[in-house]
Write a structure and sequence with these properties.
Blueprint: H1 32-39, H2 41-44, H3 48-56, H4 68-86, E1 94-96, H5 98-111, H6 119-124, E2 127-129, E3 141-143, H7 151-166, H8 168-183, H9 186-207, H10 210-213, H11 216-223, E4 230-235, E5 246-248, H12 258-266, H13 274-282, H14 288-298, H15 304-310, H16 314-342, H17 345-348, H18 358-370, H19 376-381
Parallel strand pairs: 1-4
Antiparallel strand pairs: 2-3, 4-5
Helix pairs in contact: 1-4, 4-5, 7-9, 8-9, 8-12, 9-16, 12-14, 16-18
């Protein structure tokens, strides 16, 4: 069975930013108490005191010798438990006990990430297929360890996973075009850009399905509270923090690597604003190998956009512009989803993960995406000089 879209290896991203194999659903038996904890999160979260008592009963574990797939699972499990604790207790200051904080920070360091539940952990490492023969489609995905235990949360995660999956051909197309540029083949650049042109609208269509199965009220009341940022939280026994309170951004789709990679590959530039500062900060919440792909795409000595703009090929320029318009469409679809779920917060308050006032900035990112258009008639259509 062909589980995902896959072609030849492209820059180590054969499966885009999804893991190469479905995430583990359990740790080895000696971590049983931890798997049991995250397995009953919806029940525990109904009683904050019970969360704290259960955390206190957890033992100190060694995580440094776990193989890669088990390390990823452990990182998710510690992130879920830590978020459950931080967003349940009322005492201040919030102290994450050493049996959580020390292994969690060790795992975070090994992934090159911050010690908080990130988009990568909650979304990309927290899904499973209901039926392995049916592949990655909305209706066939459920959350391994949810906060709410609702079908709405399954659909929420499924939408992100299927969007990441839909992005794979676009990733292959754009990075393939960059490889073709190095080889000096405009014919191959054309073929690869065509793949991206076909994939980008499907990404927009996929993310817009969020509203089919995730009700706004359920998201706001039962899911979003566990995505919020940490403010002055103490990680007990973690030497690098020296007992000082730490603050980190919460779980947000701004931590997805898709858009930064597309911007880098297409040469889309954004003016410095608090939003671009925030976007760059969010890269610290991506795993190291994701950041490396983005940085590699951005540091090209022969930018794809420059080559196409200097070429005499109208076909290449039109394909490039269609990629830009597809990227703009995806950003527009994402913004509609944000507006739907966050309502007034979307225009005046703080976004999930700590972005504010993010709608104004998302609009700017959309406008700046269009500024990358090359052909005069395309620019004129969108009122660009």
């Amino acid at each position: 069975m062909e589980r995902r879209v896959s072609t030849t290896s492209i820059d180590g991203l054969e499966f885009g930013f999804l893991p190469k194999e479905p995430p583990l659903t359990r740790l080895p038996p000696h971590f049983e108490l931890f798997d049991e904890f995250v397995g009953k999160l919806p029940l525990l979260l109904k009683d904050p005191q019970l969360v704290k008592i259960t955390v206190d009963d957890l033992p100190m574990m060694t995580v440094s010798d776990l193989p890669a797939d088990q390390s990823a699972r452990a990182f998710l499990v510690y992130g879920l438990i830590t978020n459950a604790l931080v967003h349940s207790v009322e005492e201040r200051p919030i102290i994450i006990p050493a049996q959580l904080s020390q292994p969690f920070c060790l795992l975070a360091d090994s992934f090159g990430m911050k010690p908080i539940l990130s988009y990568y952990l909650y979304t990309l490492l927290n899904w499973e297929l209901k039926n392995k023969s049916k592949g990655i489609v909305h209706e066939n995905i459920k959350v391994i360890n949810p906060f709410s235990g609702t079908p709405d949360e399954d659909w929420f995660v499924a939408t992100h996973v299927t969007t990441e999956h839909a992005a794979i051909p676009a990733i292959h197309g754009l990075l393939g075009a960059r490889q073709a540029l190095k080889a000096g083949s405009d014919a191959q650049i054309t073929a690869h850009l065509q793949k991206a042109v076909e994939a980008l609208p499907k990404m927009a269509q996929t993310i817009e399905r969020m509203t089919e199965g995730t009700k706004r009220k359920v998201f706001v009341k039962h899911i979003r509270p566990y995505f919020m940022s940490y403010e002055r939280v103490i990680y007990e026994g973690v030497e690098q923090f020296g007992g000082k309170p730490q603050s980190f951004n919460g779980t947000t789709a701004a931590q997805s690597s898709i858009l930064p990679l597309f911007d880098a590959a297409l040469g889309v530039e954004h003016k410095p604003t608090p939003m671009t500062v925030h976007i760059n900060t969010m890269k610290q919440y991506m795993p190291r190998h994701h950041r490396n792909h983005i940085n590699r795409a951005k540091s090209s000595r022969r930018p794809l956009r420059e080559h196409i703009n200097n070429s005499g090929s109208e076909e290449l320029k039109q394909l490039y512009d269609m990629c830009i318009l597809g990227l703009h469409e995806f950003r527009d679809s994402h913004m509609k989803i944000v507006m739907h779920y966050l309502g007034e917060d979307a225009t005046s308050g703080e976004g999930t993960g700590g972005t504010k006032p993010f709608i104004t900035w998302l609009e700017q990112l959309k406008r700046e995406t269009l500024q990358a258009l090359l052909l005069p008639h395309n620019r004129e259509e969108y009122g660009l000089q």
